[in-house]
Amino acid sequence: MASENPELSIIILNYNVKDLLLNCLDSIFKNKTNSDRWQVIVVDNASSDGSGEAVQ
Fold first, then answer.
1. pLDDT tens-place string over residues 28-46
2. Which run of H or of E encompasses 53?
């Protein structure tokens, strides 16, 4: 989810922890507020465990 002027930006740095990343994202989206002014940014540091593909 992206917003032009977000009130909240959640930035996740990832490197070869696909399962933890997916659990984190799942938790964020299950507990989000009704506001649409937030965004999640995942920065992947060239993982080789399929993290990027899993997020897409």
1. 999 887 778 899 999 999 9
2. helix 51-55
Q: Within the chain, where are the H helices?
A: 18-30, 51-55
Which residues have a Cβ under 8 Å from the Cβ of 13 and sit 6 or more positions away? Answer: 43, 45
Structure tokens, 53? 């593909």
CB 7 within 8 A of CB 39: no
What's the burial of 31, exposed, middle or buried (CB within 10 Å: 0-12/13-18/19+)?
Answer: exposed
**Structure token pair of residue 12:** 């996740």
pTM: 0.82
Tokens matching residue 34:
């009704």
The three-state secondary structure class of 22 is helix
